[in-house]
Please model this.
Amino acid sequence: MAVIVVLFMSTILLLYLLWTPQGGVDFAGLIGRRGRTASLPEAKGLIQAGFAVSGNGSGSFTRSEDTDGDIQEAAMAELEGFLAQSYVESASISREQYELAMSGWPSVRISYDAELPFSAFCAICSPESALSIRDDVMMKTLSFSEAAADSVFVTDAEGNTQRFVFGEARDSVELLLSQFGDDSVPCYAAKDLLGHGDAMLALTGESGLRRISASNESADSDFGTDAARGIFGDTFSFVRRMVDSFGNITYMYGYGDKNLYLYTDGGTAYSASEEGALQTGFAEDLDTALGFAAVCGGLSEDEWGGMRLTGYSESGSRIKTRVFEFSQTAGGRAVFGAKGPALRITVTGGSVTELAREGLKYSAGSADELRQTISPANVIANNSHHIYNVLHGSVLAAASDEAFEYAAGETESLTLGYFADPLQGGAELIPCWVLRSRSGVRFYFDLYEGTPLGYSD
Model:
């Protein structure tokens, strides 16, 4: 009898060791065992330009939203061409030097939604490149100018620019200018239209974007079970399922070691108490995040094709915590909401510790007849007090001149997008101007009326 008990306890201990999480989810194993067809996208396809600005060398500029991605694709190809050469040097240049290179010679600058490590961006563009790019340079804008055809310019969110000089000149600007299509419109620096600020703003505009009805992703009756099975895998039989009085569902493994929450308003969240202890890089953690999302609800290839990376942050010294934010798109334009991005994943030490998902189902459909939009300059001017109060955390009214100057100077960019206005069982996607402040807060204003719709950090 004693032998049987010992064997039984040994078996239980062995199963516990096999089932206890050791640094994350076995993506390939889970997909294979369950016969899932979850798609793992390439990182390159998820990094898309927010907009691009071209200069003709005489102080005039045009702007494109690049909804088809042609400018972005050409820019990555040009950077890959530079990375295949010998790397000479890099140096900081002043804001005045950068502006002269952009305005005094033909130029193209591509602005991204997320500020990324330039070394990681280079690795994604050219995985085979042997060049070592500094890890401390962040990229919000990638620029090319005929003032220095042997160089690329990398500008961070604070406006600091690094010039990277390579071995040979390339015809990058000429090639990129050829990618600007019919959607390009004249644009001007905010200081030329409003007296303050560096954001490049279109003077006027027309659009056929219309409101779109959307339903919650989790309205699918199988969504919750699929997500739980994808995350917990073989341990699913040992997961507790709890439903509160509001109908929210919690799946819990162990003593809160792993938790999956399915909310009645359509949101999904995941948390794990155990952090990883690996020294990982950006590319590794991005792959980990994408792999986890692939088994958590199984995003299809089409769904990934409608996603793009719109936010990124990192913290920590030796062991990094990286947060990746992905937004859905409609007609090539990002969809934002007051509740946050469609997908936010936190990776610490190589393991996923948090996930928040606010996915929607919708069909973009066809556009309406063109209508006049409110101009970007008027969006800033008419809403300067709102912008000032939100960014200052104050409800006290500032002087009109103070609020106006502050709002114009704090505006980093205005782009076209959609705001997901929550409704029972889903949302209505409202065409909007997305104003991003230098501090990273996004404001959403009705595209045609200019009225505030919401904001998000």
User: Anything to note?
Assistant: Residues 292 and 359 are 16 Å apart (CA to CA). Confidence is low (pLDDT under 50) at residues 2-37. The chain is about 30% helix and 35% strand. The first helix runs from residue 2 to 19.
